[in-house]
Amino acid sequence: MSADNATVTAKPAAGLTGQVATVGKVPADQTYFDVGGASQTTFYYIPRVQFGVSWIDPSTNKPIPKGKAIVAGKYKIEYGFMDADCNIIPEEHTDLLGRHAVHASMSEDGDVIQPTLDSGAEYELSAGDTTVTVDGTYLGDVAAHAEIKQHIYPAPEQGTIAIDARKLTVSSLGSGAKITATYSHAGGKAVTPQEWAAIDPKSFQVHATPAAGIRWTVKKGATPER
């Protein structure tokens, strides 16, 4: 608009030409763009990355599969930028991240136990809720933050089963004979009510010699023996 409210037609600079195109969800690996009729082309790239943690079993040197329970014990912990398939990006493949840095800490049940977590080092994990806090930058000064939570289950214990009688007479079978067995933790430690409630009788198998066509049913008492 001019001073007297008359419409003025815009006149772009004659030498200013160009086009801006945004391409999203570009897959990883080699990508080719065919640009025609341009004397100069400039690309601006923003990586789509995320932080992640791999819990590695030292005995196999393989990551614990996603969804599998992690029990208390020693594990190798690796963390860093991850691709879309949740694989940690090797340092030699991080060119498009530009200048980058990443560091992490680890806490158990809200208490920091490792202020500085070394990726690839082994750590002893106790039962409880573990959180790995990761902070980093990429493309020079783009900040990123993530908190990866993992529940650590108690390590399984090898308990003992004491059977009160290992023999049954043939005459007692018709009246619903039974054998009583007592389960306890290693060293005779008593089972807690919570542990007792979690025991599934169907997980037990009974084998008799000779089998003699006998069918066994496993039941548990109402409360654990003290």
UniProtKB/TrEMBL annotation:
The lineage of its organism: Bacteria, Bacillati, Actinomycetota, Actinomycetes, Micrococcales. It comes from the Bacteria. This is Uncharacterized protein.
